[in-house]
Amino acid sequence: MVKVDKEKCIGCGACASVCPEGFEIVDGKSRVKNEKARCIDEAINICPVEAISK
Ligand code: SF4
């Protein structure tokens, strides 16, 4: 299960930018939209604070 740690997330938007199918920014934090999106790993790698896990 793909998760965003909302304590760590700084809302930079990088995950939603690299993987719009998988993430959306809601109220300044990233939220998982579709954990089966094929770009999830790219988002995990690009997150500057390692807030995304699976
Ligand atoms: S890349 Fe990381 S810090 Fe930036 S919005 Fe996504 S989860 Fe949050």
Overall description:
With 54 residues, this protein is an alpha+beta fold. The protein has a single domain, classed as Alpha-Beta Plaits, CATH 3.30.70.20. The chain contains two helices and four strands. The strands form two sheets. It has a two-stranded antiparallel ribbon with strand order 1-4. It is globular. The mean pLDDT is 98.
Q: What strand order characterises the main sheet?
A: 1-4
Query: What characteristic shape results from the CA principal axes?
Result: globular
Count the E strands. Answer: 4
The level of helicity is: 10-25%
Enumerate how many helices there are, as a single number. Answer: 2
Beta content:
15-25%
Biggest pleated sheet: 2 strands, antiparallel
Question: What is the CA-CA span between the terminal residues?
Answer: 5 Å
Q: Can you tell me the residue ranges where pLDDT is under 50 for at least 5 consecutive residues?
A: none
